Amino acid sequence: MKLHPAPVAKVTALAGLASPHATLDFLSMAQHHASALLTGFELMSDFSMRLVGRHFPQLRYPFGEPHAQTVLLELSDAESEEHARALFERLMEQTIEQGVVEDAVVAENLAQSKAFWDLREHIPLAQAEEGLNIKHDIAVPISSIGRFIDETDAIVAQAAPGARMVTFGHLGDGNLHYNVQAPEGIDQKQFLKEFQTSINTLVYEQVHRHRGSISAEHGLGQMKVDEAMHYKSPVEIRLMQTLKAALDPDNLMNPGKVVRWKENAA
């Protein structure tokens, strides 16, 4: 663990980009320029932003034109706001000049910074307002995120025509919410009944192919135990079982969740 001085200033900005591949280039450049000062890098797809605008029109998207991907960027500086803004301006000058970023806007005050974060935080709420959807909380290597999104979008679209992908997440650490919204104008409960299992399998197979994890920040719980046992290696499973047995030999803590160690050890 490494300690850093408490920040005295934060700079929050939104950037519009043409593709998830461009966001990876942007992340690399931001890390190069800002290093540890880069404390936020959130990916939000165009459809995610349109959902927020549809259900929370008071949250204004700051760009005149839509962008395939929007990144919420935050720099936390222990020196001064002037230092942070100068660093951000150098980053944006280079990324726009090289065609990585299409447009960008920086928050001018705390209220605007909060408004930018509200766009990100209201995506799950907008999804709920839109209706039923199939959720995936996954992680893949950062370098694979662009390919994963392109490939999985195409596979899901072929399997469930009209399905709408809601893609957002913490790009800086590879966590991705890859959610599939039911097509417009159909029975949403019937869509989930017909497609949930098959779409889960398609997405998890893609995650596995890209050497990722089917569960990221929200954990396995009970719903993903069987899938975890399927996709994890025998070494990982034995390690999980060994730790569970050592720390909870009587299986009192959350039995049946994360790993069914007794059942698998039998």
TrEMBL record:
<dbReference type="InterPro" id="IPR051264">
    <property type="entry name" value="FAD-oxidored/transferase_4"/>
</dbReference>
<keyword id="KW-0274">FAD</keyword>
<dbReference type="Pfam" id="PF02913">
    <property type="entry name" value="FAD-oxidase_C"/>
</dbReference>
<dbReference type="InterPro" id="IPR004113">
    <property type="entry name" value="FAD-bd_oxidored_4_C"/>
</dbReference>
<dbReference type="InterPro" id="IPR016171">
    <property type="entry name" value="Vanillyl_alc_oxidase_C-sub2"/>
</dbReference>
<comment type="similarity">
    <text>Belongs to the FAD-binding oxidoreductase/transferase type 4 family.</text>
</comment>
<protein>
    <submittedName>
        <fullName>D-2-hydroxyglutarate dehydrogenase</fullName>
    </submittedName>
</protein>
<keyword id="KW-0285">Flavoprotein</keyword>
<dbReference type="InterPro" id="IPR016164">
    <property type="entry name" value="FAD-linked_Oxase-like_C"/>
</dbReference>
<feature type="domain" description="FAD-binding oxidoreductase/transferase type 4 C-terminal">
    <location>
        <begin position="7"/>
        <end position="258"/>
    </location>
</feature>
